[in-house]
Amino acid sequence: MLTHKEARAILENMTKSDSLLRHARTVELVMRAYAAKLGENEEYWGITGLLHDADYEAYPDQHPNVIVSQLRERGEEEIAHAISAHYTKWGVPYNTLLDKALLACDEITGFVVACAQLQPIEAQA
């Protein structure tokens, strides 16, 4: 299994933007929380969240094909499938809880962060 350290190195090799690194970490944390709630492997789900957009900045025209290919080369088919499914333009079916959770967590974290940026907590008094 891919370790968190290896996954982080893959992400940081292709992603330099603070906002994309923050997004990856946010999705990782939410995926870990859902894994815990559902009795799934928190490390595995977290790595999936961390890597889901790893190639977006470096290879925008090929996203998510680059990261999916790298994961398949490493034998990480389940993570590769979930990342493929999260890219809705490919029409990959959502077969597992991991597939469904990644799409949901990616969408909800993006929404929550956008809302927080529009209405910062300190502005609410």
Automatic annotation (TrEMBL):
<dbReference type="Pfam" id="PF01966">
    <property type="entry name" value="HD"/>
</dbReference>
<feature type="domain" description="HD">
    <location>
        <begin position="21"/>
        <end position="93"/>
    </location>
</feature>
<dbReference type="InterPro" id="IPR006674">
    <property type="entry name" value="HD_domain"/>
</dbReference>
<protein>
    <submittedName>
        <fullName>HD domain-containing protein</fullName>
    </submittedName>
</protein>
